[in-house]
Amino acid sequence: MNNFFINILLLISAIFLGGHLSKDTPFECSSKVFTKIFLGLGGGILAIGMMIYAINIESTKTLVDLRIIAMMLIYYIGGLLPSLITGIIIVLFRTLYFGINQSSIVAGFQILILLLSYSVIGKMKLNMVKKWLTIYLINMFSIISTYFYLLFDVGDVFKILLEYFIISTIAAILAYYLLKYVRSSNELYRRYKNEATKDFLTGLNNTRQFDLIFNKSVVNANEKNEKLSCLMVDIDHFKYVNDTYGHAVGDIVLRELAVILKNTCRVFDAVSRVGGEEFCVLLIDCSKGRAIEIGKRICNEVKNHDFEIGDGRKIRITVSVGVSAYPELTDNIEMLLKQADESLYKAKQTGRDRVCSADTCDNK
């Protein structure tokens, strides 16, 4: 039974290694063909290891392996393409390692039938448990039918099939719960990683992440001799919104404003929430004039937007925007945030609902 434990160790190693490689982006969520191919190759390597360390059923001196477990695991995770690649590797290795014989030909047809079965399963709407169970039952029916055909003239064929069924069932149950554990761990990892960098309410960068982006942008601007601009955006009379409609409505306003900011700015600009109702937009390689244009566009979009607050009610708000720009408004890039904050204060003092910089103020 030593090889059985080796197979189990190979299975555990493959699941945890795959889990580590996919901790940021799950294999099943990736649409990249390269990822699918990589997953299929990994499944093929796992299947080869299982074939090399075939399990000897000592009472009958018969060798069986768990390559089908590898194939069903790959299909469960990545779908038809990776399992197709794994199946091709299994057939090629089986042919090269053991030669072309009746067993290898039957194994090839077995893989083909399984792939056709997988394509049918893919069209069925099954939850995770039912999907795994369906794949397992189809695999077991296929492999047991194959062994029964090949070993029909061998004594104790039913004993061989029973032992193989027990071994495969243990491996399948272990694989399912390990996979479930790894997925759960990775989901927690991605959640905590996201919460460490994103504002919980708006989904924008939080203050910590903004500081990292700002420091990196400063270095890039100095190294590449690029311009760098900053917008400080603050909701006008936000306390009145909270006091009049409640904090739940205030949260709605903040979330919708975050969407407006992301849609109004360029895709590569860094939009962050840096305070209660204060937002900061870092405009990469952006001149003062362009920054003021973006600031005006933000003011207009917000002013003309109906914020739906429930029960068919809608409200409108305005924002004030402070602009700073390096090197046009300051030759000290480290003062960019302070200058934007001072410009925002200037916009508040001169009437709100306007865009101000160190040298100009415009509410149009």
Notable features of this structure?
elongated, 10 strands, six-stranded mixed beta sheet, 364 residues
Task: Characterise the protein shown here.
The chain has 364 residues and is α+β, with helices and mostly antiparallel strands. It has 2 domains: 2-195, Arp2/3 complex 21 kDa subunit ARPC3 (Orthogonal Bundle), CATH 1.10.1760; 207-362, Alpha-Beta Plaits (2-Layer Sandwich), CATH 3.30.70. It has helices spanning 2-21, 33-52, 67-78, 80-98, 102-121, 128-150, 157-197, 207-224, 238-245, 247-264, 288-303, 336-349; strands spanning 55-57, 62-64, 228-235, 270-273, 278-284, 307-310, 313-315, 319-326, 355-356, 361-362. Strand 4 (270-273) and strand 5 form a beta hairpin. Helix 2 (33-52) runs antiparallel to helix 3 (67-78).
Query: What value does the average pLDDT take?
Result: 86
Query: So, CATH architecture of the largest domain?
Result: Orthogonal Bundle
General form = elongated
Q: Measured on Cα atoms, how large is the radius of gyration? A: 31 Å
Question: In the CATH scheme, what's the topology name of the largest domain?
Answer: Arp2/3 complex 21 kDa subunit ARPC3
Main sheet: strand order: 4-5-3-8-9-10
The structure class reads alpha+beta
Tell me the strand percentage band: 5-15%
